[in-house]
Amino acid sequence: MKEKAIFFWSGGKDSALCLHKILEEGKYEIAALVTTISADLKRVSMHGVREELIEEQAKNILLKDGRTGIFLHKMYINSHSTNELYEASLERILLHYKLEGIHKVIFGDIFLEDLKAYRENILKKFNMHGVYPLWQLPTGLLINEFIDQGFKTIICCCDSRLLGEHILGKVIDEELVRSFPPEIDPCGENGEFHTFTFAGPVFSREIKLKLGEKVLKVYELESGKNQEQGFWFIDVQSES
């Protein structure tokens, strides 16, 4: 009998590749995908992807026994929530699954040591343990594996200091990866960009997309004045 686990799902390429590895290995049964949603915006936190797109991903995940769909547990926070409020929401979810007898939590992190330590400190409160299938694997090899496996993902947001708005909506392929400046991690692991995965071996079908407007959201200083930098977002919608 497989051990049950929950999976923190962003909808991007690292999540998709990580889930693919977990399903192929067959060690864990995924009881739920957990996604952080900004309740006031109805979009995935950080990525800016519409809530309904994550729902479409979850219902079309293809399991090894031929069934489709994994339950999607939405962790709602406000887009301006403090870290304390975020942690309170996270701990409520962890407690919920701990009481169901689940002790493993899967993440698609690759090499951010401080983020992993942060996660582990929270999990310790519930005697739960993190699982990191992509941990410390070379990002150049990971992005090539992602592409070779037949995944398709588009860039849904990017750091305006490092990448221009022209990259929004582009499908990541070998040519695009080669065009990245040297300071850009191939997987965007330092926050250079985020993605939405719409096709690949973990899905029963391709999600048809249409692209909308591009918006630059600038950072705000404590004084309230805007800096000339921020994140570019593109509005990605489903055609279905």
Description:
The chain has 240 residues and is α/β, with parallel strands linked by helices. It has a single domain, classed as HUPs (Rossmann fold, 3-Layer(aba) Sandwich), CATH 3.40.50. It is built from six helices and ten strands; from the N terminus they run βαββαβαβαβαβαβββ. The strands form two sheets. Strands 1, 2, 3, 4, 5 and 6 form a six-stranded mixed beta sheet that branches. The chain has a four-stranded antiparallel beta sheet with strand order 8-7-10-9, with helices on one face. Strand 9 and strand 10 form a beta hairpin. The model has no long low-confidence stretch (mean pLDDT 94).
Low-confidence stretches: none
Helix/strand structural class: alpha/beta
At the fourth level of CATH, the homologous superfamily is HUPs
What value does the Rg take, in angstroms? 18 Å
Q: What is the succession of H and E elements?
A: EHEEHEHEHEHEHEEE
Could you say how many structural domains there are in total?
1
Task: Note the main sheet.
Answer: 6 strands, mixed
Q: What is the 3D form?
A: globular
CATH class: Alpha Beta
- Find the count of extended strands (DSSP E, 2+ residues): 10
CATH architecture: 3-Layer(aba) Sandwich
C-alpha termini separation? 37 Å
Residues in β-strands, percent: 25-35%
Q: How helix-rich are the residues, as a percent range?
A: 25-40%
Q: Using the coordinates shown, work out and report the CATH topology.
A: Rossmann fold
Mean pLDDT metric: 94
Helix count, per DSSP? 6
